[in-house]
Write a structure and sequence with these properties.
303 residues; alpha/beta; Rossmann fold; 4-stranded parallel β-sheet; 9 helices; 34% helix; binds phosphoric acid mono(formamide)ester
């Protein structure tokens, strides 16, 4: 992984992904050490973020490194018309590695093609979110004690959900049974379904979430993302499609865990938060350890 960008989850092999999860488990035991002393990480967020940006920054600071960057294009020279290429070439003079979130699909790949320092994709449009994928895999393995042979249910915006796309591609390596719950308008894109078919795995599509709760090991809820809809009227039609409530979990499997990349709006009722099956805030915490493992691996500071 040394000096290699992470743009799509499939940039790293299955073994490399598992190695990162193992290293993250070690960081969870010992998150504070000085291995990033004298290292500078650039954090370029052209789109809003709470978890990804702050967990990256916390990960770096707990390892003794420094962070430079911006939290919106408004506070950078992009506002004056500077191109992404010029921004990356300039920022790469100031840092050892760049973390980038950008609203345009493919922008992180483009950044990696022009950058002299490694790039980590922190989410590009509706395309990919590979570090979220790694922390989701970490959370699944931690709660189920395995990644293989699970029933995993994805709910909500499967069309524009970059976290969904990355995680489904990764789970194709683990003999997953996929349950896909969405409004007709937000079905999983055929480009992602192709990964499931190529892995010779099975998926079922549903509109009604109640049909699938009892046969799930993981329910991965997602927000219907207003910002991704070209037409606001289309968003209005589906925005309240799902609302998971505590009483819907009565016949669920004992090992069920509910994940959500967050932020949530109304798709999980707050009465689920006190359930032992709710795992979304612990999931967000796991992001620190996975990102520590990833940065240290790319910078060649652990093997
Ligand atoms: N999961 C996630 O990407 O959250 P943020 O948008 O808050 O970073």
């Amino acid at each position: 992984m040394k000096n290699r960008s992470l743009i799509s989850i499939s940039d790293y092999s299955k073994q490399e992904q598992i190695d990162l999860l193992d290293r993250a488990a070690n960081f969870e035991q010992h998150p504070r050490r000085d291995i990033l002393k004298n290292k500078v990480i650039a954090s370029l967020f052209f789109e809003p973020s709470t978890r990804t940006r702050l967990s990256f920054e916390s990960a770096v600071q707990q390892l003794g490194g420094s962070v430079v960057g911006f939290t919106s294009s408004d506070s950078s020279s992009v506002q004056k018309g500077e191109s992404l290429k010029d921004t990356i070439l300039t920022v790469s003079n100031y840092c050892d590695l760049i973390v980038i979130r950008h609203p345009v699909d493919g922008s992180a790949r483009y950044a990696s093609e022009v950058s002299p320092v490694p790039i980590i994709n922190a989410g590009d449009g509706a395309n990919q979110h590979p570090t979220q994928c790694l922390l989701d895999m970490y959370s699944i393995r931690k709660t189920q004690n395995k990644l293989e042979n699970l029933d995993i249910t994805f709910v909500g915006d499967l069309k524009y959900g970059r976290t969904v796309h990355s995680l489904i591609i990764a789970l194709c390596q683990f003999n997953t049974r996929f349950h896909l719950v969405s409004p007709v308008e937000l079905k999983l894109p055929s480009a992602v379904k192709r990964f499931i078919k190529e892995a010779k795995l099975h998926y079922e599509q549903y509109i009604d979430l109640t049909e699938v709760v009892a046969k799930s090991d993981i329910i991965y809820m997602t927000r219907i993302q207003r910002e991704r809809f070209p037409d606001p009227i289309e968003y209005e039609k589906v925005k309240n499609a799902y609302n998971l409530r505590n009483n819907m979990l009565e016949n669920s499997r004992p090992n069920l865990k509910i994940l959500h990349p967050l932020p949530r709006v109304n798709e999980i009722s707050v009465d689920v938060d006190s359930s032992s099956k709710a795992y979304y805030f612990e999931q967000a915490r796991n992001g620190v350890f996975v990102r520590q493992a990833l940065i240290a691996s790319i910078l060649g500071l652990i093997s």
